[in-house]
Amino acid sequence: MAWAGLAGLVVGVAAGCTSAPAAAPPPSRPAPAAVTQPAGQLFYVSDQSSAAKELATRSASGSGPGSAAGSGPAADLAALGRIARQPSALWLAGSDARAKAEDLTIRAEAAGRTALLVAYDIPHRDCGQFSAGGAADAPAYRAWIDGLSAALADRAAWIVLEPDAVAHTLDSCAVPAAEATERYALLSYAVGVLKKHPKVRVYVDAGNAGWVKDPGQLAEALRSAGVGQADGFAVNVSNFYTTEQSSEFGAKLSAALGGSHFVIDTSRNGNGPLSDRDWCNPPGRALGEPPTTATGRAGVDAYLWIKNPGESDGDCGRGEPPAGQFWLPYAVGLASAGR
């Protein structure tokens, strides 16, 4: 995993010198971590991400998680830094989405960067599972999208639209036909509204390499969801399939869509999946390629950290935190694996 060229993380204080004897200095304490914008990176690195805030808190206090065998404060802070120094997406849902989107895009514009956002408020979200929720109904969702659009103004952003929403219409979730039709119409509405902004890119989520196996069936659903008016689709969001697996899956889907481009979530795919069914906080996973638009793969617009590394997938029956909550031992494990 290449991390060359990233800004260094200051975790110590400089020691001064004097020609006269002096009392022993107090024990050094790490300075608060500063999240900077890495040279050459298109996307905005926020100091408000879960990892960045955790890193700043622990750097200031001089404490570390100490959660993994053989780990210690310095090593764990370094592991957190490997997450915090990369751009990751801000997930938007609920009534505060407009304010959050406005704040992030303003910060990103001031830094000369592009914001990464996830729109995640579709009605009947996540098939009633760990991330259940979403807008109350179709009118509420259209109003929510209108608010998000207003928040963007003329600022640059890449938006991943509604993870799992399309794939769930084709799996065992058993979304009724009328509800699926309404969902496609809402996604098409969202694409149309958000693409009115010249500096905004929209990628409709298309699941992952282990989900909908028929690219023709998935392509038809994506067309119904407005992918033809979007900049493309997203694959592997919040999952663990390798970049190679995701590229192959995306290329087949792209061919079925007439050459549509796509982005890949590489946030946690460094060691690939534990198995096709182990999607909920599987152990032993690792960070993947850092976010970049220089993928070297035809049709792949970017590798992105869409899922925020260290945020839980949900309570999988082993006492994990709720979905979306930052989980320090898991974050350190992801950042330390294979290093």
Précis, in short:
The chain is built from 8 helices and 7 strands. With 339 residues, the protein is an alpha/beta fold.
Question: Could you explain how this protein is built, in words?
Answer:
With about 350 residues, this protein is of the alpha/beta class. The chain has one domain: 1, 4-beta cellobiohydrolase (TIM Barrel), CATH 3.20.20. The protein contains eight helices and seven strands. It has a seven-stranded parallel β-sheet with strand order 1-2-3-4-5-6-7. β2, α4 (about 140-150) and β3 form a beta-alpha-beta unit. α2 crosses α8. The model is unreliable at about 1-35 and about 65-70 (pLDDT under 50).
Record the SSE blueprint.
Blueprint (H helix, E strand, L loop, with lengths): L49 H12 L11 H12 L5 E3 L4 H14 L4 E5 L18 H15 L4 E5 L15 H18 L5 E6 L9 H10 L7 E4 L7 H14 L5 E4 L34 E5 L23 H9 L3
Parallel strand pairs: 1-2, 2-3, 3-4, 4-5, 5-6, 6-7
